[in-house]
Amino acid sequence: MLSYLEEVEAFFIGLVRRGLALRPSDVAVVQDWEARGVPLEVVRRGIETGLARFLASANPRDPMPVSLKWFRADVEREFEVHQRALAQGVLPVVQNGPCPPSRDLQAEAVAILAARVEAASSEAESSLLSRAIGRIRDAAKAGNVAEELLAVDDELAAAVVASSPALAARVEAVVRAAQGRGLGPAAVASIRRAQTRAAATELGYKSLVASLLEGEEMACRCRGAGYH
How many structural domains are present in the chain? Predict the structure, then answer.
């Protein structure tokens, strides 16, 4: 079984395809993440997001970032969102720590999606959202609602981007840039997901996780003001 450092090192080097080991300065960055309890999945997602951001704006001749320090801000942003989600019970705890408050994620997510069905502007959009509701309900029976929320978000974000030829083309351009730089299939798929999420946000798509967090924050403000 690989250590935390070895996991990050293998993922990062496999993604950028440069070097055989992390630089000493990058090892210190990884050790800091581990000491603070940053989950490996959060580190991976932050690096993927940062690489997608680089590919979207870089000149084809610009060298790939080869230091984890370049991605540190992206990982920190992902970790901040992750901590909020943990504290509010939107995501499961995957490391030692206090349990989050109990929430009925199925009911909350279904309510959000049902409202979107009512506001849908087309039969196709309504059908896609209705299928998402079914998936969330099925996931609740299997006990993995939080994981399914992320998968549903990816599918809905992709559908939103597909409705905009310009942004869909931009996503594909970033994917081609990743392929042109020799990134492997898994890395390219990660880049596509990250770039699709960013493009969907530009079009006004609010992820289910973001909506759940917003709903909890509103409830907290109301409770604090004395409304129940």
Answer: 1
